[in-house]
Amino acid sequence: MRAVVQRVSRASVTVDGEVLGAIDAGLMILVCAMTGDSEDAPAKLATKIAKLRIFRDDAGRMNKSLKDIGGAALVVSQFTLAADTSRGNRPGFSTAAAPEEGETRYLAFAEALRAEGIPVETGRFGADMAVELVNDGPVTIWMDTAV
Questions:
Q1: Does some domain include residue 128?
Q2: Does residue 24 form part of some domain?
Q3: What mean pLDDT do residues 35-42 have?
Q4: What is the CA radius of gyration of the chain?
Q5: CA distances from 14 to 81, 127, 128, 130 (A)
Q6: 87 assigned to some structural domain
Q7: How many whole angstroms separate alpha carbon 1 and alpha carbon 81?
């Protein structure tokens, strides 16, 4: 699985004018299931992200996790994280998991974060979504379970 993790002061996702999920301080997580992901990839990624120390401590250093600050996560599926731009100008997405598998892994990832004690809001798999966020820092980290 791949994820782009952004530390945010607030974030929301809207579909057809309806806000599906919104958080205050926490993480905006764009996630993509990849062909060949293991069954335990969603749980492994969720555990890593829940413990990722990218929030400021009292000294201003990135030393606290999402769990430490009691923050929330907004999880949005984004198959375009699988983009292959190595040939030409049009990205290919053949390494993204098939939609059925992608949705299963996406939902499993959100549930695994909840199991870590993180409040989770989500978008709608496969929908055309409008995502708004205020990146705090800015802090943006790319993660891949295959690396």
A1: yes
A2: yes
A3: 94
A4: 15
A5: 20, 10, 9, 5
A6: yes
A7: 10
CB atoms within 10 A of CB 140: 14
pLDDT of residue 147: 56
Identify whether 145 is part of a domain.
no
This prediction's pTM: 0.95
Integer angstrom CA distances of residue 44 from 7, 31, 47, 67 = 20, 13, 5, 16
H helices of 57-126, where?
66-69, 99-115
Place of tokens 């926490």: 26
Domain that holds residue 111: 2-137
- The catalytic site residues sit at 78-80
47: domain CATH number is: 3.50.80.10
Give per-residue pLDDT as tens, 46-84. 999 999 999 999 999 999 999 999 999 999 999 999 999
Tally of domains within the chain: 1
